[in-house]
Design brief:
Blueprint: H1 16-26, H2 61-75, E1 84-87, H3 90-101, E2 107-112, H4 117-124, E3 128-133, E4 135-136, E5 140-141, H5 144-152, E6 159-165, H6 177-190, E7 193-197, E8 222-227, H7 228-231, E9 240-245, H8 248-265, H9 270-273, H10 276-281, H11 283-307, E10 314-315, E11 323-327, H12 334-345, E12 350-351, E13 362-366, H13 371-389
Parallel strand pairs: 2-3, 2-6, 6-7, 7-8
Antiparallel strand pairs: 1-9, 4-5, 8-9, 10-11, 11-13, 12-13
Helix pairs in contact: 3-4, 3-8, 5-6, 11-13, 12-13
Amino acid sequence: MTVHFSSRVDISEPNPIAAAQAKAAADGIALGKLNDSNPTRHGLAPKEIPSIYEANPRGPKAARKALAAFLGSRNGQAVDPERLYLLSSTSEAYSWLIKLLCDAGDAVLAPKPGYPLIESIAGLECVHAIEYQLRYDGAWYIEPADIAAILDSPEGERVRALVLINPNNPTGSYVKENEREALVALCRERGIAIIADEVFFDYDLEPLAANRRLAGEEGALTFALDGFSKMLAAPHAKVGWIQVSGPEHDVAEAQRRLDVIADDYLPMSDIIAGRIPALLDAADAQTDRVRARVRGNLAALHGMLESDELGVTDVLRPEGGWNVLLRVPSVLDENELVLKLITDHRLTGQPGYFFDMTSNGYLAVSLLPEPDEFARGIAAVLDTVRAMLG
């Protein structure tokens, strides 16, 4: 089934002048422009930024080529730089893709428990976020039948995209191979696009089996999101990207519209883009550094929980990412737990209900802090649990 695209994006036929300009470009004819208002083409660029600005909607081509080579080498599968869009963040990518796929009143499916970003961005676009529940049975998993049931319901008629976070935050669960096959087939059958957020993919902790990225998936129209925020632990770099894949017809129609959105925003700075090749050269070493930190802290966490005399606090199995969920006795109120941490230890945190956990007794914890700081934080949680239980 063909994917539905929103009516927001104007893809009407070009006027005669635009058509003539396009033909001249295709024939290799360079046209002068009486209306050229790009100052960098007229010797007016500042000496600190002397390059000529090309305003490529998908991002500077040299940067996309470098990124495509990196992704192809990492994943063992060639990546076409023309299937990549550079932008400032995955949050911006969500916004673009909701514009691309959804009219006002349409909906996207988003996982719960989960970080509440998608609902907020969807709301800004006048689009609904319909939650689907991850299930837990010693490990988190997606039940494809749950997704099908939502799509078969009255509200399912307006669903335009399925968001898969691989691995999810804060549950740390990857999309399993059997889940992937079923969900790709379901989306292809229903004409629904997949938005795959894979920013934490490289930070595997305790995976159940080998996992695969959804980037490059050909079975259904797929938009894979990634960026330097997690890969380089550099949210201040402000570099993210969308990789488009799927059936050729769907990809062509999607890119025709996505080019319009990208051209309206042109978010990628040439200054930052110029540094992308060097940053990619540093990516493997930096990812290894961060992975060593989070794995080390997870090992320390297991040790502290095992040696805790009370023994009532544990951690839900984290397959990947750099956050985990502590489980404390459900008789303890989550708000009271965090408020007591603030009062007694000058520490704050995020209780499970912030992520729409379906029951009480959870606390999200980052694995990023320096080891001594991390250990002090966990000790404070255990002390607070002990004090609250009396």
